[in-house]
Design a protein that fits this description.
Strand content: 25-35%
Number of helices: 4
Number of strands: 8
Helix content: 25-40%
Largest sheet: 6 strands, antiparallel
Structural class: alpha+beta
Strand order of the largest sheet: 1-8-2-3-4-7
Number of domains: 1
Shape: globular
Radius of gyration: 17 Å
Length: 163
């Protein structure tokens, strides 16, 4: 598992990141691996009118629980829209910016993964480092092979047109 140090302002939707997070009511934080859906979702509280910011993602693995199985992970990437290379790392194929409406629409498509869907307080997340997963080992090999074949076919097509 290769990790690359990054910052929260550089995280984009679709990336797989690892970070420490301390949930409310717990005494210590745990390492979590998350597929980011929206790195900065804003929510206006009805009682005070204050804007809270959240990180929305699918929790793939934690330090204290079992990870998502490979078959569920493969189905998840199909629902998200496939795989892509982003900054040298394998990521889910999501738009670069995600609005609140887009987040709601995408989470509706991800109904079978509701038990893995999490929101994290962005203020709490920014207290600790975040790492970009360069090669997440739990992605099934056949999914990666299919993705590589699509990439090769795409680039072969590009080079045939230019010649």
């Amino acid at each position: 598992m290769a990790l690359k140090n990054t910052a929260w302002h550089a995280v984009s939707p679709g990336q797989i990141v690892t970070f420490m997070y301390k949930s409310e009511g717990t005494s210590r934080g745990y390492k979590r691996t998350v597929l980011i859906i929206n790195p900065d979702m804003r929510y206006r509280k009805k009682t005070t009118g204050r804007i809270k910011r959240f990180v929305v993602g699918i929790q793939l693995d934690t330090q204290i629980t079992r990870p998502i199985t490979e078959t569920k992970l493969e189905m998840l990437f199909k629902r998200v829209g496939g795989l892509e290379f982003e900054e040298g790392a394998v990521a889910g194929d999501l738009p670069d910016r995600m609005s609140k409406a887009g987040t709601v629409k995408l989470t509706g498509r991800l109904r079978p993964w509701y038990k893995f869907l999490r929101t994290y307080s962005r203020r709490e997340c920014r207290k600790r480092r975040v790492y970009l997963e360069m090669d997440y080992l739990r992605i099934p090999k056949d999914t990666l092979d299919t993705f590589n074949e699509e990439l090769v076919a795409k680039y072969e097509k590009l080079f045939e047109i230019e010649i």
